[in-house]
Amino acid sequence: MNTVEMLGYAASIMIALSLTMKNIVKLRVLNFIGCMLFTTYALLINAWPVAVTNGFIACVNVYFLLKIHNEKVKLPHSIA
């Protein structure tokens, strides 16, 4: 097994692992990592449809992670 194949397997594992998460932030972070690994893998093997699709999904994950972060920042802080 060469390095490129190992990258593809690592990407697959990250995507599969992300889908087991109950916490949406953890799901999106792991999925983002998996998508970036898949994008890199696809570029290395010249699989443009895979690269474009996973690059797009990575962007979607970033968008929703930023949205979640901004919603948490806007929440009023309770007095403890």
Structure description:
The protein is mainly alpha-helical and 80 residues long. The protein has one domain (3-74). Helices cover 80% and strands 0% of the residues. The chain is built from three helices and no strands.
Gyration radius, in Å: 16 Å
User: Residue-averaged pLDDT, rounded?
Assistant: 94
Estimate percent helicity: over 70%
Largest sheet: none
Task: Provide a compact summary of the structure.
This protein has 80 residues and is mainly α. 80% of the residues lie in helices and 0% in strands.
Task: Give the SSE map.
Blueprint: H1 3-18, H2 24-44, H3 48-74
Helix pairs in contact: 1-2, 2-3
Keywords: Membrane, Transmembrane, Transmembrane helix
Protein name: YgjV family protein
Transmembrane segments: 6-25, 37-66
Features:
80 residues, membrane
